[in-house]
Amino acid sequence: MPPQNEARKKHLADAAIDVLARDGGHGLTHRTVDKHAAVPTGTTSNYFRTRDALWVAVANRVAERHWEIISTIEGFPEKMATPNEASEAISLMLTGMADEGRIFNLAMLELNLEAIRRPGLRPTLHELNELVTRQMGINHRLQGLPADRETLDMIGIFLRGLQLSMLMPWNLGQAYDPARLIERAYGALLATAPDQTELPGSG
User: Which residues bind DNA (predicted)?
Assistant: First the structure.
């Protein structure tokens, strides 16, 4: 097999993300990605031989795009360290960037749901979650804020729930400023964190 064109491979993975966000997991097929990417029929299957391989490619590209999006936000990820600064950056990731943000968030949710059925997707998603959590912990420690795993995980759980809520057509969040919701919840979670001096290894 001749060497693959990496630019085209990325283009196909991005097209697959668009298809996943638009049609859901059932609509993610090689033929649909070919059509959306405007490439000859069979191109996607040449790069990703099976449907499992196509799903893994989407997972890897979603992880890449997560960091690409973060890199465009001024002061991020350092702004994760305080509630008022984190609120604007996280709100932008959840609701900003016009259609691009919505597509990315929809694809991420579909991907996590599919990982329930496809164990092969879990390592990439687990690694992304660990990297994000680790970065948050580093930022918290630099600011002298709670950085125990339970608090960091609770923040992540809240943000994933908000991500889903903001995508709902009956979106309760439409009545509220997402940045304000994040600031309030983030602040409450930090305020109720365990005493750091009592945590294992803190002495």
Answer: 29-48
CA distances from 92 to 34, 79, 87, 95 (A): 31, 12, 9, 5
Residue 4 contacts by C-beta under 8 Å, 6 or more apart in sequence?
Answer: 47
Residue the block writes with tokens 């893994």: 56
Q: Does the pLDDT at position 86 exceed 70?
A: no
- Which residues form the domain of 103? 58-193
**CA 14 centroid distance within chain:** 14
Which has the higher per-residue pLDDT, 117 or 82? 117
The 10s digit of each residue's pLDDT in 101-112 is: 788 888 999 999
Q: Single out the residue of 187, 131, 189 nearest to residue 157, CA to CA.
A: 189
**Cα–Cα distance between 201 and 203 in angstroms, integer?**
6
Structurally, the chain folds into a number of domains equal to 1
**CATH number, domain with residue 87:** 1.10.357.10
Token reading at 13: 């993975």
In-domain check, residue 67: yes
